[in-house]
Amino acid sequence: MLEEKKNKLEAIRHSLSHLMSMAIQELYPQVGLGVGPAIENGFYQDYDLPEAIGLEILPKLEKRMKELIRKNIKFEQHNVDFKQAYKFYQHDLYKTALIDDLKSVGEKSVSFYKSGEFDNLCAGSHVKSSGQIQSDSWKLEKLAGAYWRGDEKNKMLTRIYGLAFATKQELDNYLKMMEEAEKRDHRKLGKELDFFHIDEIVGSGLPLWHPKGAILWRIIEDFWYKEHLKNEYQLVRTPHIGNKILWETSGHWGFYNESMYPPLEIGQTLKENQNKEKTKNSEQFLLKPMNCPFHVQIFKNKPYSYRELPLRWAECGTVYRYEKKGELSGLIRVRGFTQDDAHIICRADQVENELKKVIDFILFIYKSFGFEIESVNVYLSIRDQELKKYAGTNQGWEFTEKVLERVALEKGLNIKKDVGGAVFYGPKLDFKVKDAIGREWQCSTLQFDFNLPERFDMTFVNEKAEKERPYMLHRALFGSFERFIGVLIEHYAGALPVWLSPVQVKIVSVGAAHAEFCQKLADEFKQNDIRVEVDESDETVGNKIRKAVAEKVPYMLVVGDRETASDKLAVRDRGEKQTREIDKERFIKEVKEKIKNRK
Amino acid sequence: MLEEKKNKLEAIRHSLSHLMSMAIQELYPQVGLGVGPAIENGFYQDYDLPEAIGLEILPKLEKRMKELIRKNIKFEQHNVDFKQAYKFYQHDLYKTALIDDLKSVGEKSVSFYKSGEFDNLCAGSHVKSSGQIQSDSWKLEKLAGAYWRGDEKNKMLTRIYGLAFATKQELDNYLKMMEEAEKRDHRKLGKELDFFHIDEIVGSGLPLWHPKGAILWRIIEDFWYKEHLKNEYQLVRTPHIGNKILWETSGHWGFYNESMYPPLEIGQTLKENQNKEKTKNSEQFLLKPMNCPFHVQIFKNKPYSYRELPLRWAECGTVYRYEKKGELSGLIRVRGFTQDDAHIICRADQVENELKKVIDFILFIYKSFGFEIESVNVYLSIRDQELKKYAGTNQGWEFTEKVLERVALEKGLNIKKDVGGAVFYGPKLDFKVKDAIGREWQCSTLQFDFNLPERFDMTFVNEKAEKERPYMLHRALFGSFERFIGVLIEHYAGALPVWLSPVQVKIVSVGAAHAEFCQKLADEFKQNDIRVEVDESDETVGNKIRKAVAEKVPYMLVVGDRETASDKLAVRDRGEKQTREIDKERFIKEVKEKIKNRK
User: Could you tell me the strand order of the sheet in which B311-320 lies?
Assistant: First the structure.
C-alpha cells in the first residue's frame, strides 16, 4: 500500500515535469531538453534555453501548467525505433546523447510518452491523465544552474525545480517545515552569531572559525577529551600529510582516489615541480583523507601482548577530501573536516564488548547535547553480494555482519538495513539523530574492520606466544566537529544551551557611569568560570538589548542606577521579555549548575 | 682580546684540517679534496675517497697527525696564478670547481698554504707552525656523508669531523657536556619513554605521537588555552590549506617559496593531474606554511571600530614547511609543526602596551615550565640596510625597530642585536632559554609587522570615522609544540615535573592477590584527577620496579601484603632508592598541590 502510494506520487511528480516542458516549449520552441526526473519532494527538468530567465517566469509556467491539468491530457507510452528517435531529436543534442546511451547498453527500441502535442523520450512512469494531479498540491520552486551530466566541463543548463505532493495539506506542511528550516539554517546563523565564515579567497569548503565559533569548538573538544579519558581511551596525534604508500596499502587510494587531493611531490625544488620532472629523491605524499593508517603505524612501532589489548586510540584529526564545489554546503559538506576519530584494536573475544561500549558512548553523547535518544535511527550497512567493491573473505564478512547485527539488536537500537552500504573493509552502523523539527542528521559511525589489520599485517602476541591478527573498530561520535556544530546550530536554532554558549552572560551598562560596576561584576563571573561579555558602548540601551537578543545569549543583565545600588541582579532570560530579580550568589549558582549538568 | 683568542682557535682548527688532509693523502694519494673549514668546536674536511672507510681509520689518522705536530711544520702562504692553480689540481675536480668560483668573482690569483710537502688552495688563517697546537686538546670525532656543495644531486663525499680546543681541559669539558647531552637526547628519550616516533613509511620529519606523548601535549595545550583566555586572548581556528593567492599577497611566496610544499591543483580529476593538464576550474592551493593570512581574512570579514581593538587572536595551528632530509632532527627540526601562534591587531597607541604584555607572558610561560628567566637571552633582529630582502618603507622600519628596542630595554631583557636577522615584514625579538646544562634553545618569538596590514589592506574605523591601518604583532610563546616538548625532554632529561608527567603515580602489585586493591587505589587517584597506571603483570616485582624507574614516573607505590593491610602507602619518589611511608590522604594532597603549583 505504502509502496503503491509512493509510486503514484512519483508518477505525479514526473508528469508535472512533462507538463512544465510543454509549457516552456510553447515559449521556446527550440529548447534543448536535459534530464527531468521525479525527486524527493518534487521534480526538476534541465533546459538549454536561448536566453537567461528569471524567477518571473515561474508564475507564467505555473498558470499554463494548471490549464494543461484542467484539459485532462492523457499520457500514453509508445515504442520508437532508434532511427525514428534520432530523427525526432535531430535538433536536440542532449536527447540525442541520451539515445546514444540507450543504444550502447543494447536496447532494441526506446520508450516515449506522448501527452497532447508533446512527445518525449521517457521511460515513465506517469499518471494516466493530468486530471489525476491536484492543482493546488504542487508549485514551481526555484531556478538553478546545472552542468550537463553534472560535469563542470560541459555547458551549464537551466534547472527548474518544482515541489509536488499528493495533497495541498502535504505541500503546506512541507513549505512550513522549509520556512522553519530556513530560520535554523546554520549558514545564516553562523554569520549572524559570528561563529565562522567561508572565505572566497581562502577557498570553498574551508571554514574559518571566528572567536565565538572557536570557543564553542573548544568547549565541545574539551568535553570530548575528558569523556574519552573517562571511558579509558588514550590519545594519539598524527600529521596531516603522509606517504602515499600508506593509502595504497590500506586500499583507500584504489577505492576512493577521486575524493582525495592530488599527490604532493616532496623532495623536489619548485622549478623541478613546475617542470613536472621526476627526481630521484622525490616522494609522493597525500593530504590525509583519514587517520587510520597513522594509528596502524603507531601500533606497528612496537610489539603488543594480548594482555595490553584492547587499545582505544582517539584523535581529533583534521582530514581533507575533495568534493565538487556544487556539492559543498556550509559546515555540513566541506573539503576539510575534523573527525572525532578513534580506533579500537582488540582481540576476537573482546569485539562484542567493545562494540557495546561504543554504542553506549554514542547514545551518552547525543543525550549530553540534548538530542532524544529514543528517536535515533541506526542504519546497518552490509555488503551487496552482487557488487565487487569489497575487500576480504566471505567468512570475514559473514562473521562481522552477524556480530554487528546481534549487538545492535541486543542494545535495542532502531535498525534499518542498508544492503550495499558497507565500507570496502567491513560492515558498519550509522547513527542518525532527529533534530527539533524532525530532520535526520547522520552523525556517528561505528565500522567493523577485519581488512586493514590484514593489509598492514598487524599482529599481537597471544597467550600461546604466537602472532595473532587483531580486529579493528573505526568510530566517530560526532562524525566531524564541523558537521556536528552545524547540526547543533540547526537543532537549537542558534540558541545553544548555557554550557555551550560562547557568551553565557551579557552585561549591558545603561550609561557610562555604570561601566565600572559592570566590569567588576564581569570579573566576578569570570572567577566562577562563567563566560561573560560587557557591552559598555555608547549606543542606546534599547540597541544594546536588541543586539544581545540577536546574539541569543542565555542571560542578559541590564545594569543601571537601581542595580548598582542593590545586591540583586535584573536578569533577562533568553526568549523572555521581562526581567526577574535574583541574588547575585543565587544567580551564579544557577548558571554554574546548568554548566555542570550540561543544560 | 676575546676576538684574538677566537681567531687563534680558528687558526688551530683550520690547521688541523690541513694536517688531517696530509695524513689521508699519505694513505690515498689520489684523494679529492672538498671543503674543510673550521667550525664551532672543531673542524671538518670532505674527501672523495676511492673506497669506503670506517671508524677504525680515525686512530691511525690521529697518530699520524700527532707526529706531524711534533715535527713543528710551518704553514706558509703563497699566491699562485690561475694557470698554475688549474694545473696543480688537474686531477681534482672539486678543487678545480673552487678555483672556477674564485675566477668567476674576479680574483686575480689564488691563495695557497703550504705545510711541509702539502700545498693546498686555502685563504687561511693558520697557525705559524704546527707546534702551536697542543696535541691533547683535539681529537677526531666522527664520519659522515656530505653531498658536494650540499646538493643531493651531487656525489656524496666522506666528511671527517674533528673536535679542537685551545686546551685539553676545554676538550674534556666539551666531551663531558656531550655525554650529558646524549643522555638527555630527546630522540632517544622520546623512544624510551614511548612519547613519539618518526616513521620511515609515514615520512621524515613527521612525528607520530603515542599515547604518553599525546597526553603530555594535551596537558600543555590545555594550560596554554586557559592562560590565553585569562590574558584576554580569543581563539580562532583555520584550515591547513588555502589558496596560493594568500601567500602571494602576503609576500611569503615570493620570499620563501623554496621552503614551502609545491602547490596542489584543486578542481582537477586525478587523470588531469597526472597528465599535468591545466583545467579551467582548477585552483592552486598550498599547505599552510604560516597562519597569518587566515587570521587576516577573519579580520577582513567584517568592519572593526577602534573601540574593538586590540584583537588578540590565538591558534595552535599546524603548519608545514619543507626542510631537506639532512637537516631534520627529532622534534627540533621537522617538516610539520604546531605553532602556538597569535596575532595581535592593534592601534599605534596600543603597540607598546601590547609588546610589554607579550614579553610578560613569555617570561611567565618559561617560569611555569621550570626555566630560569634571568638567563634568557633575547636577540633583537633588525634590518641590515645593505640587503634588499625587506618589504615596506624606511620610516616604518625605523619606527618599529625603535619601539621594539625601547620596550625590550624597559623590560630589562638581556638583549643581543642581530643585524640582518629581521623577517621581511618587520623586526623581531627571539627568546632563547637555557636548559639545565646551559644550552640555549630558541623558543619564543615576537615579531612586529607593519607590512602585512598594508599588503592585505587591513583597516579599522578610527575616532574620526576614517579608515586607519592597524599594526600587527605575530608571536609564539613555545615557538612550536614539537620543539618545546623536545626542549622540555632535554631540560629535564625526561624526568618531567609532576604536573606534566603522563603517568604521575605508578602502582606496582607484588602478586596477583594485590591486584584488586591496586585497582581500587587507582580509582581513588583518578577521582582526584591524578594520572595513574597499575602494573599487575605477572613479572617479578624487581622487573616491575625497574620498568617504572625507566619510565621516570614521579611516584611509585609498591603494594604487597603489608600495604593492603594498612592505611599507609609506601611511596618511592623518583630518583630515590628508599620508600617513605605516608597517609593516603596526605599523599593525595601532596600530589594535587604539586599539580596545582605546576611543580
Answer: B234-235, B311-320, B336-346, B471-480, B440-449, B428-434, B377-382, B414-419
